Amino acid sequence: MNELAEPSVFAGLDAGAQFRGLRAALGRRVATLCKEARTDEARRTAALELFRETLAEGRDMARARLEARGSGHACARLLSGLQDELIGAIYDYVLRYVSGVDAALAGKLTIVAVGGYGRDALAPGSDIDLLFLAPDKQTPAGESVIEAILYILWDLRQKVGHATRSVAECMRQARADMTIRTTLLEARFILGDAELFAQLQDAFDREIARLDPREFVSAKLAERETRVRRAGASRYLVEPNVKEGKGGLRDLNTLFWIAKYVYRVRETKELVAAGLFTSAELSLFERCEEFLWRVRCHLHFFTGRAEERLSFDVQNALARRLGYHDRGGLSPVERFMKHYFLVAKDVGDLTAIVCAALEERQAKPRAIFERFLQPFRRRRGKAPGGDFVIDHDRISIVDADAFKRDPVNIIRLFWMSDRQGLPLHPDALRAVTRSLRLIDSDLRENKEANRLFLEILLSRNMTEITLRRMNETGVLGRFIPDFGRVVAMMQFNMYHHYTVDEHLLRAVGGLSDFEAGRMTEHRDLVEEVLPTIVNRKVLYLGLFLHDIAKGRREDHSFAGMEVARALCPRLGFTPGETESVAWLVEHHLTMSSFAQSRDLSDRVTIENFAAIVQTMERLKMLFVLTVCDINAVGPNVLDAWKSQLLRALYWETEVVLGGGQSSADRKSRVAAAIEELRAALPGWSDEAFEAYAKRHYPAYWLKVDVARKLRHAELLASLNGAATPLATAVDLDTTRGAVELTVIAPDNPRLLSIIAGGCAASGANIVDAHIFTTVDGLALDTIFFSRAFDYDEDELRRGRRIADFIVKALRGEVAVSDAVKARVRAAPQNAAFSVAPEVVVDNSLSNVYTVIEVSGLDREGLLFELTNAISKLNLNIASAHIVTFGERAVDAFYVTDLTGAKIASPPRQAAIKRQLLDIFRPPGVRGGKAFAVAAT
């Protein structure tokens, strides 16, 4: 038989009707195959191959419809219909050709779809959740049918979750288990005894749904909190989970489960008649659901698996598949992700609406989010009066016309919430979202509205919570239109963890928490400086606006400066205050850049930075702004090393701006650092400690935190008397999730290159490096590289293997270059990001050294290749400053030639640039035409 001549089983079937009739078509084709087959095994093989081809062809049809700009929800329903028909055909095949069971007897067996499949929607990689509903007593015949069906589904490589229960067993387990109760809530009949399925539904309505709904609602909301916390607490994480994350599909599922249970509806459209949603809100629910389903189906098809996380490496591809293009300075991927986050915000709005309605019905414990506000509580003021009331410990409006009577009430509502220390009533928030058109140019220019907004911004009470609620309702983006441009805007890089608006709100919230004493982490950094800042409102607004111009074609620091100059007068700032805010926005990256990529022990570095800052007040404000900015990038981004560098830069610049006494003040700070370590080493004799302290240059004492100084002291002490001093130590840096490898060895020009090569050859991706030299000629280098294992014990073993390799390399026992080449050839390249490489050679940044600054796409072995090339160029590296901003590496090397002089020759500078830029070219095309050379 030539099967290729057979017409497709889908011939004549309507995909729009979810392949209805496919079961019958498969039945006819199976009958023909089984008639021709000579043995049972041959029949099974032929039937299985037919089912496999049908499943693949049906999925291909669903994929083609989706990729032709089709509906995501329609794709999910099509795949569900395909599965229904396939299960029906498998059931028919088993009854007729496998089990030998009487059809009437087997007919009592009922197959029910549950879970996502029960909602008649399947993603391409979803599990198939089945309930085999049996009469009160399951028979061996029924069990054999179930087993045969499952074996065929498993042979088709389908992921099947299944259970076999009677109606009574379903009810008993639903009473005890909320998960089972939820699956039964969405049970859907596929085939078998329709009367038995009706008994299941009747029993559920009678025995389960009439129970107090508060237990179910509380369980589902608690389950949501746990799920969201596991997937990432913010809905604005730049690599969101489409299914489980905050604002994802599971949130919509949870809303419908709760509504279905409490309101006893079966279809989404019934929620309007039930009074839960307006028609517009139902339409929003359906748009959100459609968008998320479209993204999820594309994601599954593109990755070929049940991938739910929109990671960086798939975002670009999905943006193209979904039809996004460049517009308004945003790339396709940025426009796609902005759309995603706006949808996630809409899902949050729908969640608030449902929770408010449930509280009105007393189906949910009131104010479930109250506990999040406890740290912000203060003594409540009087009842608001006027257009506002306190309703069940929440601020609300007296009637629906409160905003029409006075649009300033929209801003005043949030001001009142912050002032009273109370959350806003969901009905008031709902009224706000319906009144956004009232926020027009007149309201934006209203002095009272601007005064109230500024008081919210400067409040030490609930600043972040209030601003976030203003943002989520759309008020903040309408009142400050430039902020509206960055709402839900992602930054397509691995450095930032949140969207731009979320980052700004977290930064301002962090400053408010510092001032109010709620923030304990990093408080020691700012506790002396913050109270001395004269003009708080300049600092707060500068921090609020520092990234306001992200996503524009021009540099966001300069564009943001112009935004500040336009906005400040509206908020009542004087010309001097306006310029101070604009300066903070323009220079918000300057202090971080100097601290992390410049040699702070070089006098020119401090003088250059002081020339930019000019006044003590600006230094204080920029220091606090930088701390809050880095801390709001993501968890643990502001680590002990960055904190120490910022502190050192602040101290050094403070001395210069304060009149000069730099030598004495520096000595006093070094002396204080030495005394701090002395107190931490009580077992050392005075003579031993004094000798040890003299081994370090002043820069070491000012840059390194005391915990690392302790480890270094013990490691160096272990080498006393060694003929060839060489030691390594491996620790885990839990704050940044990295491995810390310290190497002590005699200093030589190729040392850093050998260490970097050892890491590269071992597959360790270096993210930071601290380079020091002792007075007696030892190098004290600490390298930080990314973790590879979940368990600390595994990671420490890996770290020790890398340390051993480096020791062998330093002893000349292994060839580092060969090992690195082999590793780099095998390592996958990062194709998700594109970073234009740049090399700058600058003689103005130091009186003694030439500074080579290299930036480009980070990868395994990059630092080794750079340091190796610098060595081959006959340059000595005096200090190196290694920084990684996500996928972007920014490395600065302070170098001299072999005579100790700067690199002054233009031809030699050009040669350095060409060779270092060539490192960023693919290995097969190196040595050809170089990248564009950056200006000196």
Automatic annotation (TrEMBL):
Keywords: Hydrolase, Magnesium, Multifunctional enzyme, Nucleotidyltransferase, Transferase. Pfam families: ACT_ACR9_3rd, GlnD_UR_UTase, HD, NTP_transf_2. InterPro entries: ACT-like_dom_sf, ACT_dom, HD_domain, NT_sf, PII_UdlTrfase/GS_AdlTrfase, Polymerase_NTP_transf_dom, UTase/UR. Residues 381-739 are annotated as: Uridylyl-removing. Uridylyltransferase (UTase) activity is inhibited by glutamine, while glutamine activates uridylyl-removing (UR) activity. Its cofactor is Mg(2+). It catalyses: [protein-PII]-L-tyrosine + UTP = [protein-PII]-uridylyl-L-tyrosine + diphosphate; [protein-PII]-uridylyl-L-tyrosine + H2O = [protein-PII]-L-tyrosine + UMP + H(+). Residues 500-622 form the HD domain. Its EC number is 2.7.7.59, 3.1.4.-. The keyword Transport does not apply. Modifies, by uridylylation and deuridylylation, the PII regulatory proteins (GlnB and homologs), in response to the nitrogen status of the cell that GlnD senses through the glutamine level. Under low glutamine levels, catalyzes the conversion of the PII proteins and UTP to PII-UMP and PPi, while under higher glutamine levels, GlnD hydrolyzes PII-UMP to PII and UMP (deuridylylation). Thus, controls uridylylation state and activity of the PII proteins, and plays an important role in the regulation of nitrogen metabolism. Has four distinct domains: an N-terminal nucleotidyltransferase (NT) domain responsible for UTase activity, a central HD domain that encodes UR activity, and two C-terminal ACT domains that seem to have a role in glutamine sensing. This is Bifunctional uridylyltransferase/uridylyl-removing enzyme. It comes from Methylocystis borbori.
